């Protein structure tokens, strides 16, 4: 790999990569070659060989070649040549004197993606866009983050599951449901693994996790919504309150962000100009009603008919928390039952409230979590109260008829976490292939 060249001694090397730039001069030709580990300068021509003072042209030992003159940007080439360390070479202090160059696959001459192309053009040509080092880094960050989360789960004895994405019923609100033809009938795409992660608790899997796709037929064209996204889900048994879920949530995020900072912090700083910040524990916790009072006192009345917060309110409460506690995260707790799904447990003292929370990161919601209602009579009553048909839900309600421990969990949008971590404008920048109301290609 190109990054390994600097540590090697001068001598013959073979490198492959994409042509980034060609400088075709009269006596010397330069090619900047890039692979995913870095870039190196290739030279054809003698400028860097010791010139003979008697013969001013003695440095031009290798003839110019049309192979290089005609190289198009983006072509994939393999080069054999002499590695030379040279402090004057700005790009990494090494260069390779070309001895043999093979154009493995040429690129068409006009690269459809330029530095200033808009996001839609870049997404049309996502494979070219992903060649940019910043984009490559996004997915290394994702890998490091998820690996650290998995390590926490595995260390705690959690089991990884894969739940079906084809379902017979809705798993969250019916409004955002994709319906698909399914032989003679119809099926729905899973909006969340909610029911099946709870099934694992009834099955005696004390702790589970899943990282998988979730689908939402969401018409909104915001920077934080996609119709398909990656959901990080976990569920654990024998909890006493949502506090146990929040503690796991904190532990996972701290582990993930620590790994990203340790492994990739320097590169992130170089390419994105930002420092990765690992949050301190515990994260601040504010009951939703109190959060609304705080933003109201600071001049913003949440313009919603229901009891919920709106995105602007979330931004403002996050700004308040940042100022007061210097923290990027805040758990908003005790959501009103009217705006929460039927499976959230209600507060024993105040049944108007749920044992649930949202986690806000830098002003945007990244998660919903809750203790679940595990008592079948209560669960059934709550489903009916929300206008749901218990017959349609019978497969799920059955999980609670044969003994189930108290449990809870959360769902967290991976793409939102990455967007906020890397301070990107849109979820589109950090999703391998974005899916939205107007995008099914590539
Ligand atoms: P919720 O519906 O809040 O909760 O979703 C959990 C998290 O998933 C992410 N998310 C999205 N990301 C991108 N595009 C979307 N359209 C989108 N919709 C949701 C968000 C959100 O916070 N079953 C519960 C979770 C639980 O209680 O365990 C659920 O799905 O980051």
Automatic annotation (TrEMBL):
The lineage of its organism: Bacteria, Bacillati, Actinomycetota, Actinomycetes, Micrococcales. Homodimer. Residues 139-442 form the Aminoacyl-transfer RNA synthetases class-II family profile domain. Belongs to the class-II aminoacyl-tRNA synthetase family. Type 2 subfamily. This is Aspartate--tRNA ligase. The gene is aspS. NCBIfam families: PRK05159.1. ATP binds at residues 365, 413-416. Its EC number is 6.1.1.12. Pfam families: tRNA-synt_2 (PF00152), tRNA_anti-codon (PF01336). Residues 194-197 are annotated as: Aspartate. L-aspartate binds at residues 172, 216, 368, 372. It catalyses: tRNA(Asp) + L-aspartate + ATP = L-aspartyl-tRNA(Asp) + AMP + diphosphate. Catalyzes the attachment of L-aspartate to tRNA(Asp) in a two-step reaction: L-aspartate is first activated by ATP to form Asp-AMP and then transferred to the acceptor end of tRNA(Asp).
């Amino acid at each position: 790999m190109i990054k390994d060249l600097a540590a090697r001694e001068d001598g013959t090397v073979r490198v492959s990569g994409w042509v980034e730039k060609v400088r075709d001069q009269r006596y010397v030709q330069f090619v900047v070659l890039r692979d995913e580990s870095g870039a190196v300068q290739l030279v054809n021509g003698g400028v860097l060989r010791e010139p003979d003072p008697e013969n001013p042209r003695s440095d031009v030992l290798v003839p110019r070649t049309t192979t290089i003159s005609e190289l198009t940007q983006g072509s994939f080439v393999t080069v054999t040549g002499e590695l030379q360390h040279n402090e004057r070479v700005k790009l990494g202090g090494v260069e390779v004197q070309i001895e043999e160059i093979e154009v493995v696959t040429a690129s068409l001459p006009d690269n459809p993606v330029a530095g200033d192309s808009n996001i839609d053009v870049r997404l049309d040509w996502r494979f070219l866009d992903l060649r940019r080092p910043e984009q490559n880094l996004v997915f290394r960050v994702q890998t490091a983050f998820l690996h650290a989360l998995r390590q926490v789960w595995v260390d705690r004895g959690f089991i990884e599951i894969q739940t079906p994405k084809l379902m017979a019923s809705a798993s969250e609100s019916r409004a955002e449901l994709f319906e698909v033809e399914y032989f003679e009938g119809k099926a729905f795409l899973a909006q969340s693994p909610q029911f099946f992660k709870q099934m694992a608790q009834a099955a005696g899997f004390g702790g589970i996790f899943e990282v998988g796709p979730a689908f939402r037929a969401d018409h909104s064209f915001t920077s934080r919504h996609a119709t398909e996204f990656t959901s990080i889900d976990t569920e654990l048994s024998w909890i006493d309150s949502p506090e146990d879920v929040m503690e796991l949530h904190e532990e996972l995020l701290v582990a993930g962000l620590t790994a990203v900072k340790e492994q990739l912090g320097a590169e992130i700083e170089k390419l994105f100009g930002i420092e990765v910040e690992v949050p301190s524990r515990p994260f601040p916790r504010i009951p939703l009603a109190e959060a609304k009072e705080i933003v109201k006192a600071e001049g913003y009345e949440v313009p919603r008919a229901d009891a919920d917060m709106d995105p602007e309110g979330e931004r403002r409460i996050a700004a308040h928390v940042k100022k007061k506690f210097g923290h990027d995260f805040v758990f908003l707790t005790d959501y009103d039952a009217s705006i929460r799904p039927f499976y959230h447990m209600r507060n024993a003292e105040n049944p108007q409230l749920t044992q649930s929370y949202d986690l806000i990161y830098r002003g945007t919601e990244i998660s919903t979590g809750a203790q679940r209602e595990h008592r079948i009579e209560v669960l059934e009553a709550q489903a009916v109260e929300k206008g749901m048909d218990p017959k349609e839900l019978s497969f799920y309600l059955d999980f609670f008829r044969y003994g189930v421990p108290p449990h809870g969990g959360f769902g967290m949008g991976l793409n939102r976490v990455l967007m906020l971590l890397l301070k990107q404008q849109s979820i589109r920048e950090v999703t391998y292939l974005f899916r939205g109301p107007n995008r099914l290609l590539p």
